[in-house]
Write a structure and sequence with these properties.
Elements: E1 2-4, E2 10-11, H1 17-20, E3 35-36, E4 51-62, E5 67-83, E6 86-93, E7 102-109, E8 112-119, H2 123-128, E9 131-135, E10 139-140, E11 142-153, E12 166-183, E13 186-203, E14 210-222, E15 226-236, E16 245-257
Parallel strand pairs: 1-2
Antiparallel strand pairs: 3-10, 4-5, 4-16, 5-6, 6-7, 7-8, 8-9, 11-12, 12-13, 13-14, 14-15, 15-16
Amino acid sequence: MAKLNCDGRLVLTVGLCALLGFHPWSVVLGAEEPVTISKSEEYFPDTVGSRWTYRGQISEGPLQTVELKFFTNVSTVSGTKTMNGVTVTVFHDTNPGNHGPSDSFYRRDAVGIVYYGSEPGTPLEKHITPYQIFRFPLRVPSSFQQFDRMGVDFGSDMDRDQTDEKVDTQGWSKVIGRETITVPAGTFQEAIKVEARMNMKIHLSGSRRTVSGIDVMTAWFAKGVGLVKYSERQELSAVKEDRGVVTEITEELEEYDIKAAKASLSRFESPAKGVLADDFRDHELSQIVFPARLRTYP
C-alpha cells in the first residue's frame, strides 16, 4: 500500500507549492475534462494474505554528500483490526524505505481510502491522522488538500534545547494520469500515476528560527496489482551550520501474489462517519504519500 504518505505504501504527502509561494494545483491541468476511472478500488487490492516484494534504493545525507544504499521490502496484508471503532486493514512491511519493520493501517470503502497511521508511528503522524489519501471514483486529473495543521508537536528537539519543536504542515494528493510503466515484475499498462506533496515549517524553540522541510512522492498503481513503483524525495533545510539533508527513495515491484477478494473486506463497508465528506472543506485529514516514513533529523 502507499501512503502517499510518507510511508511509501499508499500515503503520498508533502507540500512544495506552498513553500514556493503559490497555491498547489489551484487549476488541475488547465481546462482538461476529468476522466472517471470505473472500479477504482481494483487498483488497490487489500485481501488478507496478499504479498508484494519490492527492490529499493535510498540515497541520503547532507546536501552534496550523498550515500547510496540498496534494500528489499516485503509488504503483506496481515489482517484487520479495530481503531477508534472502525475496522482497518493492516499492511505489514519488513523494511519500507530501509527504515525497518512497520505496520500501517488503512480503511477502504465506497468513497475512498483513509490512512489511520502506523506502528511505530511519530508524534506528528498522530496529530494528522486519520486522513484521506484517495477519493473514489478516481478522476484523472484531480487533486485535493489532505490536511492543514498549525503548531503541532513535531516530536523532535532539533536545536537541542530540551524542548520539542512545533510544526505547521500541509499535504495534498493529486491524480496525474495513466501511463505504461516497466519494473522488474513486468510491464503494466495504464497504471494510475499519483503524486503526494507535504510541506513543513518547523519552528525552532531555542533560536526562534524556522526550518523548512518538503516531501514529494510519485507512485504508480496497476489494476489488480496495486503499488508497482514509487519515488520519493525529502529535503530539510540547514538547522545550524550544516548543509541540510536530502533523501531520495525508490521502490520497484519484483514479484507479487494477490489473493482472491472476499465480500467481507472493507471495500464493501459504508464510509466511516466524520472522516469523509462530499466537500473537501469538511475534511480534516494529513504520507505520501505518503507519513511514517517522514524522518526527523536532530
